[in-house]
Amino acid sequence: MCEYQAKHIQYLKNHLLVHKDNSEVQIFKCETCEFETKYAGALNRHLLNHKDVSEVQMFKCETCEYQTKQKGNLKTHLLVHKDISEVQMFKCEMCEYQTRHRRCIKRHLLGHVNISEGQT
């Protein structure tokens, strides 16, 4: 299938859902909006969007006014306060683009795929 490896079996089980069609797995749906996902954890994180800030734990940046309902978002935000020499940079092998965020390089690389497909 792919080269994904995990230290924990649960991570591997979650990853395997990537390779399955939605018709083959349980879909978790938000009762408030149209959001749906293959991942229970993703639904739980999503549900925080519908809660008032007074109902959930807020994660606050100690350097600026940023705050979020999700710990992972704070972890990502904290990178903006670090010097570029202190963080791992993700670099594009096809151009000069670089970023502090893995999700951004993945999205950027899709642009190169679309461009190359359009030229064929």
TrEMBL record:
PROSITE patterns xrefs: ZINC_FINGER_C2H2_2 (PS50157)
Predominant subcellular localization, coarse grouping: nucleus
InterPro entries given in the database record: ZnF_C2H2-type_TF, Znf_C2H2_sf, Znf_C2H2_type
Taxonomic path: Eukaryota, Metazoa, Ecdysozoa, Arthropoda, Hexapoda
Name listed for the protein in its UniProt record: C2H2-type domain-containing protein
Origin superkingdom: Eukaryota
Coiled-coil blocks: none
Compartment list: Nucleus
Biological source species: Molorchus minor
Sorted UniProt keywords: Metal-binding, Nucleus, Repeat, Zinc, Zinc-finger
Residue span(s) of domain C2H2-type: 59-86
